[in-house]
From TrEMBL:
This is Mannan endo-1,6-alpha-mannosidase. The keyword Signal applies. Its EC number is 3.2.1.101. InterPro entries: 6-hairpin_glycosidase_sf, Glyco_hydro_76, Mannan-1_6-alpha_mannosidase. It comes from the Eukaryota. It comes from Sporothrix stenoceras.
């Protein structure tokens, strides 16, 4: 007994060693944990806050990305059991809840829209779902629970459902004087509220959240932000009464709706949500396999090929990974296809994290991440988003492998919908030699002035 315990502890210590991302072995927990440790350190090198004090990210990163970083780090702690960042994370979240404990932060009025608020709420929801420790001594004010903070966001957002035009929808912005004000209705804000509703439904069983998730889905689908093939587009405009769709499409937008539909499938047991989740997963193939030398490797198809990704866009792939992994935890029937995508993409991401500290990079020299995973190495594009994308794609393999192991276990699975063991990767084919670029969906520089809507 004592011997076993010592052996177990030794294994834990060994697992805590950092591993070079390029050496990732996707079926080996120690390897995944070690690579995640390297990547978490790289991502957090951009963050100068500490366990007692929050700090905004350096220029040029917007406020939402700090919330997204803390969400990625919550997953890091959960999947790897490395709790060394926990106090830093808790302090950062609590420092940003604002006076009403709902992530409305006066200091960030100029860069807070509905989607930015939603990204912080995703992080609070993760903390609530994981029962993440809430260290009262680290927070200067009263400590509402992570769940209460998430509910506060929902209650704050719901009154902004706007029927003046388009028969509904959330606008991108909260404040009329921000860029594009209260005209643009985007998938991230509507999907953000949809995902918050779905996760609150799962956490609380409160039917109000299920009903609103239905309502937001119906509106988003009704105006065509989601089409019948489950492609999710960037948004639409009140100026046209939402009759014209901005056809840009980004990976995280699919991920937000995928995770929300999976949560509702789990909570309601209604096949309509499982069907939608499968549809969104199928539609996500547009974010993989850009060339026939890169089958199942993720890319941001609207901008990577043409080199027009902004700082924000360089973080998006990580959210598709995070939300795919989260969806699989609660809807295991998604596992086989997610496995093909994520094991291949994580391996490619690892090979991209072999750079030196060039430019403003602060991550470990020799393990700095590039942006494009399909090139087979480091492409010289460095930044926080690049680190986060690799981190989120790698660390979730642990949760995915747990789901696969549970499905393969000899005991009858507790879930009737658990998948058959992942078949030996049946490869999805892409048109030989043809990049899957639809030019209408590409962020061309000429379109920027009109259509380059992101999070800020
Ligand atoms: C990982 O394990 C799966 C079986 O679960 C196997 O099909 C796959 O080839 C393995 N991958 C690697 C890189 O070892
Ligand atoms: C945390 O950061 C604050 C603000 O920069 C600083 O005053 C404080 O000394 C730091 N605390 C620790 C333990 O490093
Ligand atoms: C590098 O850092 C400086 C100072 O914080 C900032 O102004 C600049 O935009 C950064 N450059 C890039 C490419 O991130
Ligand atoms: C983390 O801890 C849990 C509970 O002890 C354990 O089941 C799990 O295997 C651990 N995960 C890793 C990656 O070590
Ligand atoms: C959450 O943690 C508290 C104490 O920290 C414990 O009482 C409670 O049972 C935990 N809940 C879950 C769902 O793990
Ligand atoms: C609703 O949208 C209209 C524009 O369609 C805008 O003028 C109005 O201020 C918005 N209302 C709220 C509460 O945001
Ligand atoms: C806007 O579209 C909605 C349906 O989406 C319709 O009910 C409404 O009458 C339209 N308003 C205008 C001003 O065209
Ligand atoms: C369900 O959620 C709504 C919205 O947050 C709230 O107003 C209502 O009180 C909740 N119902 C229960 C039974 O908690
Ligand atoms: C999963 O992959 C298989 C094999 O490539 C494909 O036929 C199927 O359509 C995919 N399903 C989804 C939901 O992506
Ligand atoms: C719902 O999610 C839980 C994990 O949180 C899982 O054990 C269960 O099998 C899921 N139920 C369904 C119907 O997918
Ligand atoms: C795959 O092909 C694309 C397009 O020719 C190229 O940019 C990329 O570097 C190639 N990737 C690898 C791993 O060779």
């Amino acid at each position: 007994m004592l011997f076993l315990k010592a052996a177990f502890l030794a294994a834990v210590v060994a697992a805590a060693n950092a591993v070079k991302p390029a050496d990732l072995s996707v079926n080996n927990t120690d390897s995944i944990v070690g690579v995640a440790k390297t990547l978490a350190s790289g991502a957090m090198s951009y963050y100068s806050g500490n366990a007692s004090s929050f700090a905004d990210l350096p220029e040029p990163y917007y406020w939402w990305e700090a919330g997204a970083l803390m969400g990625a780090m919550l997953d890091y702690s959960y999947y790897t059991n490395d709790t060394s960042y926990d106090d830093i994370i808790a302090t950062a979240i609590m420092a940003n809840t604002g006076p009403a404990n709902n992530f409305i932060v006066p200091a960030h009025e100029l860069d807070e829209g509905n989607d930015d608020q939603a990204f912080w709420a995703f992080t609070a929801l993760t903390a609530a779902e994981r029962n993440f420790t809430q260290p009262a001594e680290l927070t200067p004010k009263g400590v509402p629970s992570w769940l209460d903070i998430s509910i506060n966001v929902w209650n704050d957002m719901v009154v902004r459902w706007n029927t003046t035009m388009c028969a509904g929808g959330f606008t991108w912005q909260i404040y009329a004087n921000n860029f594009n004000g209260l005209d643009y209705k985007n998938s991230a804000s509507n999907g953000g509220f949809f995902l918050i509703s779905a996760r609150l439904a799962l956490l609380t069983g409160n039917q109000t959240y299920v009903d609103w998730a239905h309502k937001v889905w119906d509106w988003t689908y009704g105006v065509g932000i989601i089409n019948k093939n489950y492609d999710v587009f960037d948004g639409t405009d009140s100026a046209t009464n939402c009759t014209e769709i901005n056809p840009l499409s980004f990976s995280y937008q699919n991920g937000i709706f995928l995770y929300g539909t999976a949560a509702l499938a789990n909570q309601t047991g209604d096949d309509v949500w499982a069907t939608r989740a499968q549809g969104l997963l199928y539609a996500s193939r547009r974010f993989f396999s850009p060339y026939n030398n890169a089958t199942d490797v993720m890319w941001e198809h609207a901008c990577e090929g043409v080199g027009t990704c902004t700082k924000d866009m360089k973080a998006f792939k990580g959210f598709l990974s995070r939300f795919m992994y989260s969806a699989v935890q609660i809807l295991p029937s998604l596992a086989p296809n997610v496995t093909d995508y994520m094991r291949t993409s994580a391996t490619a991401a690892g090979k991209a994290c072999t750079g030196a500290n060039i430019g403003n990079a602060t991550s470990g020299d020799g393990t700095t991440c590039g942006q494009k995973w399909y090139v087979g190495g480091f492409d010289g594009s460095v930044g926080l988003g690049q680190e986060m994308c690799a981190l989120e794609t790698v660390q979730g393999l642990i949760g995915l492998n747990n789901v696969i192991a549970a499905a393969n276990a000899p005991e009858p699975s507790p879930s009737p919908t658990a998948p058959a063991p992942s078949p030996s990767s049946s490869k999805k084919s892409s048109a030989p030699g043809t990049p899957q670029v639809d030019l209408r969906w590409t962020v061309a520089s000429t379109l920027c002035a009109l259509f380059l809507f992101t999070m800020a």
